[in-house]
Amino acid sequence: MSTAYSERRTSHSWMESAVCRHVTDPGIFHDSVTEESALAVCAICPVIASCFAYIHDLVEFSGIAAGTVWRDGNHPRVPCASCPGTRCGTTG
Ligand code: SF4
Predict the structure, then answer these.
(1) Were 19 and a residue from 45, 58, 64, 70 both cysteine, which residue would form a disulfide, CB within 3.0 to 4.6 Å?
(2) What is the C-alpha separation between 60 and 73, in angstroms, rounded?
(3) 9 C-alpha to center of ligand 1: Å?
(4) Which structural domain range is residue 52 located in?
(5) Domain for residue 25, yes or no?
(6) Per-position pLDDT tens, the chain of length 92
(7) How far, in Å, is the centroid of ligand 1 from the Cα of 88?
(8) How many domains does the chain have?
């Protein structure tokens, strides 16, 4: 059973270094109009790899995180070799 993003968002130490913690309006990560602004925040974030792995394992997440747009549980296709996620259960 997956855990909702809001329930787990403060449970990892890497989140302390997340640039988005300092964004005045967190809503930019959940609005297609402000998508470019959110992606720009992720682009300078030092924990983007940890963020990607975390979000990739959340089946229900939609929004912008880890420099990626995630929509309706449809996770972006990424080359397996560079994907740190474990949700799909495949390798290579
Ligand atoms: S990569 Fe983006 S969404 Fe993830 S922690 Fe950093 S700023 Fe936040």
Answers:
(1) 45
(2) 5
(3) 11
(4) 5-82
(5) yes
(6) 444 444 444 468 999 999 999 999 999 999 989 999 999 999 999 999 999 888 887 777 889 999 998 886 666 655 555 555 555 544 44
(7) 22
(8) 1
